[in-house]
Amino acid sequence: MQGSSKVIEALNGLLAAELTSVDQYFVHSEMYRNWGFEKLYERIHHERDDELGHATRLIERILFLDGTPNVAARTALRIGGDVETMLKNDLQTEYDVAAALKAAIALCETERDYVTREMLTTLLDDTEVDHAHWLEQQLTLIKHVGLPNYLQSQMS
């Protein structure tokens, strides 16, 4: 099915952001494991898998619309050097992805591509309700209990 070139371009932009998230979560999860923060490792490794699932859905949709997925493009990678910075960087990445998803959803409405809009709405829900919310919770915990207590709670 021939899709809108504007929608395909937006989907490729989202794909770049999702693949960047996969890379960032991969590095961060391995850093957490190396430092002994097993609970953070498990959660961020899980988030990496979720982002890979998002990328897969985007690739499938781009192909369905007769587009070519650009798997080489990436957005800015934000690797942190400590736990709090890593959580903040991951949250900013999620905020950026959410903003791009909202713009793409609006474009799909304009282009009358309601199936792609629905798929992106599902990804937005996952991004805002699951990923970003969890990261916000972690940063709030650090604020309330202090970084040392938070880090102790993340060890296995």
TrEMBL record:
GO BP annotation list: intracellular iron ion homeostasis; iron ion transport
Keyword Metal-binding carried by entry: yes
Domain of life: Bacteria
Keywords linked to the UniProt accession: Heme, Ion transport, Iron, Iron storage, Iron transport, Metal-binding, Oxidoreductase, Transport
A single Gene Ontology CC term: cytosol
One MF term in the entry's GO annotations: ferric iron binding
Family: Belongs to the bacterioferritin family.
Name by which UniProt lists this protein: Bacterioferritin
Gene source species: Chitinilyticum piscinae
